[in-house]
Amino acid sequence: MYRAGLRLSEALALKPKDVDADAGTVTVLHGKGDRRRVVGIDPGSMAIVLRWVEKRPSLGLTGRTQLFCTLEGRPLHASYVRTLLHRLGHQAEIEKRVHPHGLRHSMSYELMMEGVPVPIIQQQLGHASLATTQRYLDHLAPKDLVDTMQRREFGV
């Protein structure tokens, strides 16, 4: 969710076939509004996903089970993931609330800070409207405003 900017429901619906290691992509078949999109994922994160994909057969997990599932092949429930992230955030002594959608926000903020154009961030997030992405980013950090204010000088 974090490194690809996926919604929780999108991540939990993935199947192993939706991951293309050679292309460095993940295909979301049923995103918000039932839209299909292909997103990129960085090589380090892809390597972690591939380690799990390679481990699955030894556990008797086939390509028909969700990519992210229990060790017995049962689907993960969204409530379990939310509770797990909250607990892990608490254990890591993170003061802010840790939740699935926050991971998506973090990824988009990092892309913005790296100078990635907003239309690219829009595509990665699967937003139909550029205005939605802009509001999303403005909510996270009003970068242009802060940059402008930081360039000002106080005359003494």
Fill in the keyword field for this structure.
156 residues, mainly alpha, hpI Integrase, Chain A, three-stranded antiparallel beta sheet, 7 helices, globular
> How many H/I helices?
7
CATH level-3 fold name = hpI Integrase, Chain A
CATH superfamily: Intergrase catalytic core
Number of domains: 1
Q: What would the average pLDDT be, to the nearest integer? A: 91
Strand content: 5-15%
Q: What is the first-to-last residue Cα distance?
A: 49 Å
Largest sheet: 3 strands, antiparallel
Query: Structural class given helices, strands, pairing?
Result: mainly alpha
In spatial order, strands of the major sheet run 1-2-3
**Portion of residues in helices?**
40-55%
Oligomeric description of these chains = single chain
Order of helices and strands: HEEEHHHHHH
Task: Please tell me about this protein's structure.
The protein has one domain: Intergrase catalytic core (hpI Integrase, Chain A, Orthogonal Bundle). With 156 residues, it is mainly alpha-helical. It has a three-stranded antiparallel β-sheet. It has helices at residues 8-13, 43-55, 78-91, 100-113, 118-125, 130-140, 143-151; strands at 19-20, 25-28, 37-40. A hairpin with an 8-residue loop joins β2 (25-28) and β3. The protein contains seven helices and three strands; from the N terminus they run αβββαααααα.
